[in-house]
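Backbones bend. Shown next:

***
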Amino acid sequence: MAGQPPRRSVLRNPFFAILLAVSTLFVLTVLGYLVSPYVLAPPRALPPREGGSLALAAWLDRNGPQALGIEFLLMSVAGIFAMATEDWFSPRSRSRRLDNQS
């Protein structure tokens, strides 16, 4: 019987998890920003929308570029930290550090 397979080490580095979350938020914001003009001014064949989607589209129309800029900045910072700290969270480098200490 084979031993347990090694755990996936993709998300051992917390900065990769932050990068994944902020990148997902960035993609959702981009898609919402691209769709918001169609929600605010629908074609004549469709009935006008009301409620939450209209409020979100109006917010994205006003604040979309700033939100995307902040999210891009956060993605950049998280990506830089993820790359800079990759050796700290790698199982191979962890075992090498423990070997060097003893």
Observations:
- The first helix runs from residue 14 to 40.
- Residues 36 and 56 are 8 Å apart (CA to CA).
- Helices lie at 14-40, 52-84, 86-89, 91-101.
- Residues 14-41+50-89 form one domain.
